[in-house]
Amino acid sequence: VCVCGGALRVYAPRASFPLAKLWGSSLFPCQRQLPCCPTSHRPTSSQPHPIWPTAMPVRGYRRSPDLHSYNLTPPQVNSILKANEYSFKVPEFDGKNVSSVMGFDSNQLPANAPIEDRRSAATCLQTRGMLLGVFDGHAGCACAQALSERLFYYVAMSLMPHETLCELEAAVEAGRPLSPILQWHKHPNDYFTREAQTMYFNSLRTYWQELIDLSSPGESLGPREALLSAFKRLDSDLSLEAQVGDANSFLHYWVLRVAFSGATACVAHIDGSDLYVANTGDGRAVLGVQEEDGSFSAHTLSNDHNAQNENEVARIQGEHPPSEKKTVVRQDRLLGLLMPFRAFGDVKFKWSIDLQRGVLESGPDQLHDNEHTKFIPPNYHTPPYLTAEPEITHHRLRPQDRFLVLGTDGLWETLHRQEVVRIVGEYLTGVHQRQPLTVGGYHVTLGQMQGLLAERKARASLAFQDQNAATHLIRHAVGNNEFGAVDHETLSKMLSLPEELARMYRDDITIIITQFNPHVVGHQRQGGES
Amino acid sequence: MHCSCVWSSRALSPALLPRLLSHAGCWAPGTKPRGIWSSPRRLASAVETTQPIPLPSQARVVICGGGIVGTSVAYHLAKLGWTEIVLLEQGRLGAGTTRLCAGIVSVAKPISIECKMADYSNSLYEHLEEETGVKTGYVKTGSLCLAQNQDRFLSLKRLASRLNVMGIPCNVIKPKEVSKLHPLVNIHDLVGALHLPGDAVVSPPDVNHALATAAAGHGVQIHERTTVNHVMMEKGHVTAVETDRGAIECEYFVNCAGQWAYELGQASETKVSVPLHGCEHFYLLSKPLPEPLQPSTPVVMDMDGRIYVRAWQGGVLSGGFEKNPKPIFTEGRNQLEIQTMQEDWDHFEPMLSALLRRMPELEVCEIQQLVNCPESFTPDMRCLMGETPGVHGYFVLAGMNASGLAFAGGAGKYLAEWMTYGYPTANVWPLDIKRFGNLQSSRTFLRHRVMEVMPLLYNLKVPRWDFQTGRQLRTSPLYDRLDTQGARWMEKHGFERAKYFIPAGKDLLSLDASKTFYKPDWFDIVGAEVKCCKEAVCVIDMSSFTKFELTSTDDQALALLQHLCANDLDVPVGHIVHTGMLNERGGYENDCSVVRVKKNSFFIISPTDQQVHCWSWLKKHMPDDPQLHLEDVSWKYTALNLIGPRAMDVLGELSYVSMTPEHFPSLFCKEMSVGYANGIRVMSMTHTGEPGFMLYIPIEYALHVYNEVMSVGQKYGIRNAGYYALRSLRIEKFFAFWGQDLDPFTTPLECGREFRVKFDTDIDFLGRASLLHQRQEGVSRRFIMLVLEDHDTELDLWPWWGEPIYRNGELCGTTTSSAYSYTLERHVCLGFVSPPSLDGSPAAVTPDFINRGDYEVDIAGQRYPAKAKLYPFSSLFAQQRRRKDEMELSNFQGK
After folding, report:
1. Which residues belong to any copy of the GCVT N-terminal domain (chain B) (predicted)?
2. ipTM more than 0.85?
């Protein structure tokens, strides 16, 4: 049983325990530092945690010379929060059609060092639509990194009609330059793994050749099938590449790292009024809907694939013999280890024990030094236990659907989705749209009113600090005090945690907020009906 | 009772209504009692369904608007003996701003005429209950204007000086005394206060009702629920009013529609501009304090905190004028209903904080309500009064700038007098709607400007402030040229005029922060410009002046001008005549320069803000003759003033014509070439008494002529100068300007301008009889020049205008303008003085009164000795040959 959640409650009251997502002995350093992971023992005493006193954690830290940097100035806080922010505005007149997407704001805040979350955004150039995705890696960032580079190509290929695929193949065959497939919208920190590009391309080409073989002229997959096919195909390619290996030892090590680490993916495809969300794991897509009274409500477009989802538990239990019913999901984890119930990579939960041993033995030496890779999950009888197959949701956008928030679980475990939508909605519509205060029949004194107004004013001025809705949301996610208001002290503490401790208090947070154009959305809807 | 109705509607409540109806019935016997109040407020539906009595088919006056302003006009008209007055109200009486306004009647207003109106309103409301029997909630609470800093305290002391002149009691007091007068005020950050013991609070709807009752008693017919759709006109006269219940023929129409006055003006056949715009205005009502606040507690005006506070039903009523007002109704009335205005607490937060800082004990006090009461504001913070320029019989009284209650009584009285006698009994030019024209009627302009005006109500107003919004509307073609040369701008009637030119290399930031009651930091810059005007030559762009051309086929133009102007215009072609246009009383309606450019063609140059007023004055007196043609040519000409002894050299070089006084005597006009440009009207006159020329240049030549003048002028030391230099020059030479020194109540005799009156002819010009009479009787007030002595320019407060003048310790007048004379190295104030009346009738001014007396000018409570003069220092005038000036001067000095 893990006690960290309790121990940390003072600091991050709403956060469910962020550490416990990982299975046992991982690359993650926490095991040696904290007696809180599944394989370690529960502290014998019921007294506050020996290392992390519950009462006044601040004082505890202050004694440590490492932690003198608590008092960040507001500009310092801002520079940390804004380091990874990125905004993209869809040009208003692209000559073809006015887009239903006005643009998006994205940002990420690391807790792991290096960060294990990734994000991607791109416009499909051969087909219509825009792709946005957040990827939450675990046991390293390799798998999430591979997804951020590759998944959208797989989706784009799957969406292409037969003819386009043929043209593509013909161009490659003839050595002609390819017409671009995706236009990426990347932050400078979002990088591609240069060394692996040839291998990635070859796998992708094999995929489109198969797509050509399987389809006939005039045919293309619908977005639902395309997303499904792309997700499954990429995961199988990851697995295959790890099994085949590579002559280049760096690449060989790389593909193994990708396959042995894991990542969840939450991807949205938006084309006109059609919004498809493909989700694998515990990332989440939430739609911000503006009600007639101006307030915002949350409409969730994905299901979390974890132990809180009864359907998922039932699915996994159903896929394995009844004898494993008690072991396949233990302590809310897959095989007692993994929090997300669906993921890319993570071949330790997919391959047979023999295959795992075989691949590891032939693998590069670096792998053998790693305890984690050698470790076989307990009660591992009937693999695979894990799949990358996404759950796909279709939503037809309405004028009242104002924005879509894609976030990794680092966001959702600190803020309730309703709160997320409220914060973003109020930010995007501006302060003036805030619910006006009315006294009504209540007994309010002038002093109380003054206090209330001062607080509202402080909140409004925060919104002006941020030019990016995602940054604004992160500010709330990290800096909210017990009253639900951002306070600088909390922010300053949370952001000045040393690298090795940050992960104890929060998870990596990655957010993409896409804003819809209500005029276009309403218009297309009418056009579609007529 | 509906919750948004703040005021207990005692007077309008059903319980009292029958009494009112019976009263109305006996006072207006011709009408059915019930018809007076066609739909009494909130009565049972039985009454609602009663058919309202039909409107009369004709009336003399139709007043639109049943708020406090409209009822006040009706009341005063009736008092002056008018009959057949109909007052129309679209909803219920006093249902607009009147119903919601805060009910403070204070005389603390920025200009004297407003103080006068407020003072009159106060005494009117005080006696209204006695007169009508309707309770008005009048309590003489007095008020306290607080000063948090020395500058504010100075402005309050200046106000106190002005109020003293009017005989309105007021005391400058210390913070300690404030806490004696008001139990709640936190005085720790105050430097002083002004106590106005006469100020009062009332219940505005009740006053409204009392006025309506009194008016009805005098026979005014009041019809509620009647909407005026538009006003019908024929040949520039009001003929009828079209309502949703039929038309009423009438001679006069009065637009008192408050917030909707603009729209109503736009709705008439000939559009009438009523430049006003609404802003939301908030005030807070509290529940009673634990120890209820006495109704007699003084009103507090904490202008630095931007709030006012009065006692209200044991608690407080507190509102303010915030820095960031919310303009409203820009797109018209359909936007939002005045009854359903939203409270906005976030917007009110700064004022709530200011209130709690001023009265910390209120923290525990409970909120009753936040009231949103839209007020209408005008482009210059003063109300709109008078007959509209284009339409005879169409009067306006609106745009009260959140002082509707304080002004309504006095403004109603003045407007009634205006309609009765042709002009009010006081100079109301600062409020005259003719100071504005169509150019101020843009909705965008108004929206932007009122956002500046509303905070200005409580801003500290220092001498020579300028509006920052709604600028660069009218500019000279040289604007950009001058701007790049460091011009700093002021605005007059929408026109940008350079104040002064900042030399290259000067720190601009410190110069822009020149807002002070003391010596401003442009002092040396303007000094250098003045020096250049005196010793070399300067160019001043004076394009803003109003320019008319009056032409006729025969001598109709001359005949008209001979009738309107006091001076003789039957002069040879090419002569310039300075003349006043006088009213029947002999007072200045306009002061202008007229050039006879052809036998039957005259070029009339008037002050900038005369554009609408002078036009309507001329039009009003013009016979309906197609041969006589008046044109506004202000926009056609750029006017450059070349001022200084070397002006003739510059012009001579540019035109190859000798410009010496021998060849081009003073007060002459010639069309000639300047540089390549031909047809420039060159006039040997300046508006300051310095030698020099005015060039009236067709606008397409403006840049060329300016460039030529500047390049040729280089060797003569030419430079740009601005209006501040001009002001200093004209005031030190005792030149009166219309609008500042001259007004419709000042005659030429009172300002020593008898030489500009054609007494020697027998032409019967307008005002002649009054002037002859005055010449017989002697003038009872006289325009004088006061040179301050023992006044330290560096350390002492500077005079502005409106300062009291004392003679031998007795109040004898006020200043009208002032400037520092760089030549005399003294401050010069111009103003009017009058001897004390001994037997009640005005006493005549004698030379001894001026010459033998110890004069003092009171600046914010401190008196500075001054030397009074009836004539200017002749040494200030450059020695040059004059054709007429010499005669004028000798005349002047002989007086």
Report:
1. 478-760
2. no
